[in-house]
TrEMBL record:
SMART domains: YceI. It comes from Geofilum rubicundum JCM 15548. Residues 21-191 form the Lipid/polyisoprenoid-binding YceI-like domain. Residues 1-19 form the signal peptide. Pfam families: YceI (PF04264). PANTHER family: PROTEIN YCEI. SUPFAM superfamilies: YceI-like (SSF101874). InterPro entries: Lipid/polyisoprenoid-bd_YceI, TTHA0802/YceI-like_sf. Keywords: Signal. This is Rhodanese-like domain protein.
Amino acid sequence: MKTTTLFIALLVAGFTASAQQLSLDVAKSSIEWTGKKIGGQHNGDIKFISGHLNSEGRAYTSGEFIVDMTSIVVEDIEDPETNAKLEGHLKSDDFFGVATYPTAKLVIDKGVLVKDNTYEFTGKLTIKKNTEPVTIKATMDTKDGHRVFTGQLVVDRSKYDVRYGSKSFFDNLGDNMIYDDFTLDFKVILNE
């Protein structure tokens, strides 16, 4: 009986020791967005507020990342007036309504190693008032005591009630149509 109790205690201690919470290095992590329309595209950045991933061995059991929607900036337009106009439009109710919805949230349900250093994460993304399931593939490298995940998330904005210029909501847009899918290229740096 004592041997069984000792074995169980060591087993539990081993699992506990391998579980850890990795915190996001907000200053070094980044998100670059790209939106496309007929005949062109725009891109820029958006900032993280906070985040963490819980790991257990080589798997990830949960996590959460909060994004500051008020931090949206446009990078590809040099003219200050035109740049400010597009940035203001993206922050308006036509797009992300940041006065009402200042943050977006990604909740990770799990992350599994699929090959080499590539992980597949599943979870839920909330933008504005809508929450939708997402699957994200990311490559993980270790550098200077950090875990660095890079990848791309493709978001269908029509699922999050971002309607402006969307063929999902409006007919006869012609050359004014903006594609529903936009991309988020991310670099997530986690402190061990």
